[in-house]
Amino acid sequence: MLLSCQELEPSTKLSKERLDRAINVFGESVVKRFICFALYLIGIKRSSIAKQLIMPTETVKTVIKNLHNNGIPAFEDRRYSTSSFLPKEKRVKTLKVKTSLEWIHIDLGAEQKLKIPLNNKLQVRTILLTLLSSGLLSTKKVAELIGLSNVQTKSISKKLEREDISSLLDKRQGQKKDYVIGSEIKAELIQQFAVNAAIKRNNSSQALADDLNKRCNFDLSSRTIRYHIDKLGLSKIKQTLPKLIDTFKKNSKIL
Fold this sequence. Notes:
Shape: extended
Oligomer: single chain
Number of strands: 3
Distance between the termini: 71 Å
């Protein structure tokens, strides 16, 4: 759908009346977000939106990002626990979930616990989304465990109900090819990871991709880096490696 605004004739009087009415109903901050997103959808630059609405450009970017990730509730102040836009969810008693380095532990009651290996991504998603559909886990908790937004989690939960487990499989062939890298790149990744840890530089997947692409003239995406960080077990030492290096330096000075 393509919108053309060239033939539209806005009325200052009608605009004021409608804005005042909307602000009385929704509040000024919500109306601002409505207008911000509407202007973005018709192709206005974010810097121009910020100037027109007297908002910082970064705030405009955040509003748009939140709306894409979280849907309608993002129009409201996220500090409030409930939404006036969405129907209230029925409060049900949900299962208790704990995570360790290698497992997700779900307390089923009666001294019974379900253990799921964290590395089994498909198994984790299938079980957690099934428990979500059954009302035994909250959307927020499942989203947190599988690393997606609430809106995305609800979406794939519905797909799982309609299409079975095949809906959770990644069908993007380009992404799978993107994941395949040789031993030389893996070696450079480990080396860059160690250097960044030693100098306390950001070791996020995006930062590593930027460092490697610049230093080695690679063309790697942050998604590929993130996949191999997990595959090589580097994500498990991201916090401990810098501390270990500091301890080694201190001990070396003493000796």
